[in-house]
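fyi for ur records
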Amino acid sequence: MPGPERLMKNRLFFRILATYLVIVLLTFGMIYTLLSRQIRETALERNEATLTAHARIIDLGTLAQVVRQVDDLARITGARVTVVDSSGKVLAESVRQAEVREIHINRPEIQEAKLRGKGRAVRYSRTLGVDMLYVALPIKSGAGEPGFIRLALPLTDVRTSLKQLHESLLVTGLLALAASLLLAAFFSWRLASPIREMELFTDRLRHGELSGRLIVRGPAEMKLLGENINHLVAELQGQVAELREERAKLIATFAGMSEGIMLLDTGGRIEGYNRAFRDMISDRYGDVTGKTLMEAFRNVDLHNLFDEFRKMNRPLTGELVLGKPQSLVLDVSIDPVQGDPGEEKTVFVFHDVTRMKRLEQMRIDFVANMAHEIRTPLTAILGFVETLRSGTVEEPEQSARFLMIIEEQARRLNRLLDDLLTLSNIELGETRFSFEEVPLAEALDQVLPVLEERIRQKRITLDCEIPSDLAPLRADRDRLVQALLNVLDNAVKFTPEEGRIGIAAETDATGWAIIRISDTGIGIPEGEINRIGERFYRVDRTRSREMGGTGLGLSIVKHILAAHGGFMLIDSRLGRGTTVSLRFPPALQI
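which gave:
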């Protein structure tokens, strides 16, 4: 048997026990009722037979003779004897009454005796104050007037018998109830305990605990049921393991895809998306789970594309732009996901083609810029060559000036081709870098003399602050000089007369070497800074071309820095000047 605390927690045990107790009590009540009725009826029949026998003996005489024998019969039988005539008038009564006796013709026992030859009734006697058994017989012998004789006995013996029965049944019932309670508790536990174990076990299953097994102690049927449950759990465990493995593969595939995946539920709300799509949109839109497309992205093109998909009810592709000012260009494919009827979902597959579109635009711009940059000097060269060949120029001085212009344009074209070749070689990795220890001061000593005359002509003040303890860089000397020359050349070009150019260097707390070249030139608009370093990109195309620039200088610098593991930063304010920072990582320092 289980402990009391465990039984108190087992509601099923008490329900089964209560059922047993109700059955026991109902059975006991039925037995008690039947026995009481049977004993009462038996006592009544016995008394009735006795009274009937006595009455029949008296009935052998005439009515007058019967009246005279009333007292003797009452004394012999101990019964109350009453004789009435055919009208119900009492002729003799063994119990003397001072008051006038009632008419008895309507008494039930008299009426029954009149109709059937014998009557019986049980009722409360107001005269004696007890329940009485009445037996009546007609008096028909002799030639006199007919009447009725009635004998009555108090039911004291019946009540005594019933009382004894009650006491016996109470003692027996209590003993039987105690025994039944123990048996009911035992059988209730036998049924409830394994069911409770199954309940706890299935509750653990519901919470995902599939490792345990059910141990059932009880009837053979319960043990068989427990074994069947264990077989089902084993099969379920295998299926869950397979599902988990498939789910892990699906999640890994889903998360590892470079394409953005977004799933919409049947109501058109975003149910989930993978990491790639989250990375695409997080900076612009945050978490969009549970939102509609319009609520999440406020993009009419995407909304219209989804509406078209729902109308056509077939896979659909399109291209759209999300977000401003730095827009995402996305190729999107929309496909239905088949599920249960009425639960069809929709999957969106996004390909980020922003970089491809930007590269395509850069290619278009490059071709256009390249054609323009080459056409300008070629047009000048061809024009002056045709003029000279026509023979219309007779003065030697003018011919010499034309030839000088042709030479200048040819050199410009040559510089352009050299810069293009340099940039191409760096990008393709065909340029060999010879890294060595290069003090920054030595590199500047090679650069500044090249620009010295132009700096003097524009009366530009040059401030150079290079710490004496600055560690040398591990760099390709020629490429470092080229990068410094390109940046300083731009500074000289775009700094007005009597402006200032500053050169400073330091090592920050993380060990990076930083070379800053600043000027007080015309500056760069904020929206154009991110495009500085693109091929042929110029803020002021006309002015840059007039100054002999190719539009490739800073692009070359950016790639040289990248080859050294560093990068270039530009900080500029329109009309106030520009600062270009060249940053070299610690690994390249000694």
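The two ends are 84 Å apart (CA to CA). thats all i got for now
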